[in-house]
Design goal:
By secondary structure, this protein is mainly β. Among the domains are: about 150 residues, Sandwich (Immunoglobulin-like), CATH 2.60.40; about 90 residues, no CATH class. About 0% of the residues lie in helices and about 25% in strands. The protein has 1 helix and 23 strands. The strands form 7 sheets. Strands 4, 5, 7, 8 and 9 form a 5-stranded antiparallel sheet that branches. Strands 14, 15, 17, 18 and 23 form a 5-stranded antiparallel sheet that branches. A hairpin with a 5-residue loop joins β21 and β22. It is elongated and about 170 Å long. The N and C termini lie far apart (about 130 Å).
């Protein structure tokens, strides 16, 4: 197809304004001067981002007539640069005596106040041939920039006088319902406000009601208050505090720990005392198990070293260093330094009272094991008159009549107890065994 020689002459640019314009605005006057039937849309109608563009096309040095295909592209530079928005293609656009009119829309963000240039490509309407790019690009004149107005008399139908300046204040004399007092400025608590300075709240009744209330559950950050629930900040500890090296004094319970499960108090020391208690009057430490069905230890102490798992000292030699109001079970050796006042160890085995008929003997199992040479054995008789060892062993009374009871054949597992045939006094026998070190 024969290459076409197009020339382009910019005649006018007419804008359908984005913001509402009054008939007396300078931009609308320009629109009427260029295109007589272009009128601002009624203020109540929605306004888009399109604008009307009118140009003149010369074909072979003569004003073009017929239909043509156009492509319109918006750039941020006269040459090169970057495209703005998407290209607008218009096919079979009528051109009469070189004049054409088209509506273009590059989007709301195309005109942000910077310079813009329009690049136009053209070819005969319906032609499969390539487009001819017209040169140079056409600079967008100020009229389209009504899409980005830096100064307007009205906004959304409201006159500028209906809005407050950015650097305004609300003096109490201009606010309805606020009495004239010593506070010159106020802010609206019913909406989001940014407050600089130090506002004072003098409402409420001291000791009865708060000056204001907050119904939000959101956490207020960077809040600096002198009092919390009537307590000064110095009455509270920081979240990351420790009690290392601290001490307390006073009356009552100094430290109370309660837990439904787990460890109530855990203390670890690599050198020295893990837990240390001192009292001038009363208990230095008190441990109680209130659950009658709990078979765990009230105080449990373990050591992996050569020292004592539990060590108690009383500097008063006439008092006790330890007191146990019940049975004491010792697994292992028990060493007593000094006299064991009021202390005698429980036997390792007690047969209990065993009733025997005269002349009867019976094997009794103790199961202690070990070396029987370490056994200390106590044998007793009992009758209606009391406990006695008068007739322990073979005893002759009144000639050949044998009274009493005895044990024999003791080994590491059992022994035999017996009552003499003529005995009338040793109704029951009991054997107890202690084990001592060799």
């Amino acid at each position: 197809m024969k290459a076409k020689d197009f020339t382009f002459v910019l005649v006018a640019i007419v804008l359908i304004v984005l913001v509402a314009l009054t008939p007396n605005s300078p931009i609308s006057v320009l629109a009427r001067d260029v295109l007589a039937d272009s009128r601002p849309a009624p203020l109540a109608d929605p306004v888009g981002t399109a604008f009307t563009y009118q140009g003149q096309l010369m074909d072979g040095g003569e004003p073009a007539d017929g239909v043509y295909d156009f492509q319109f592209k918006l750039y941020n530079a006269e040459t090169g640069g970057s495209p703005i928005g998407s290209p607008v293609s218009v096919e079979y656009l009528p051109v009469t005596s070189g004049l054409f009119t088209v509506e273009l829309d590059f989007g709301a963000s195309a005109f942000a106040g910077d310079a813009r240039w329009l690049e136009i490509d053209v070819r005969p309407g319906g032609s499969p041939g390539a487009y001819t790019t017209l040169d140079p690009r056409q600079m967008i004149t100020p009229t389209p920039y009504a899409l980005y107005s830096s100064s307007a008399d009205t906004v959304d139908g409201q006159h500028a006088s209906a809005f407050a300046a950015s650097a305004h204040n609300h003096d109490h004399g201009t606010l309805t319902g606020l009495a004239d007092d010593d506070h010159p400025q106020y802010f609206n608590l019913a909406q989001s406000e940014t407050v600089s300075g130090r506002p004072a709240f003098n409402g409420g009744t001291s000791g009865v009601s708060a000056p204001f209330s907050v119904d939000s559950t959101d956490v207020v950050t960077n809040l600096n208050a002198g009092l919390l629930d009537g307590q000064h900040a110095s009455a509270f500890a920081a979240s990351g505090h420790t009690h290392w090296g601290g001490s307390w004094s006073g009356s009552g319970t100094g430290l109370w720990l309660g837990t439904s499960s787990g460890t109530g108090l855990s203390a670890l020391s690599s050198n020295g005392s893990s837990v240390y208690g001192r009292s001038t009057v009363g208990n230095s430490g008190f441990f109680e198990n209130t659950n009658a069905s709990n078979d765990w230890s009230t105080l449990y102490s373990v050591t992996n070293g050569p020292g004592w798992a539990l060590h108690a000292v009383n500097s008063n030699t006439t008092a006790n260093a330890g007191y146990f109001g019940g049975n004491v079970q010792v697994t292992g050796s028990l060493t007593v330094d000094g006299p064991a006042i009021g202390f005698f160890p429980q036997p390792a085995w007690n047969s209990g009272w065993v009733a025997l008929a005269p002349g009867e003997y019976r094997s009794v199992v103790h199961g202690l094991g070990g070396n029987r040479d370490t056994y200390v054995v106590d044998f007793q008789c009992r009758n209606p008159w009391g406990i006695t060892n008068l007739f322990v062993g073979a005893d002759s009374n009144e000639g050949d009549v044998w009274h009493g009871g005895y044990f024999y054949d003791l080994d590491s597992n059992s022994l035999i107890v017996s009552r003499l045939p003529d005995d009338s006094l040793c109704y029951e026998v009991r054997v107890r065994i202690w084990i001592i070190d060799e």
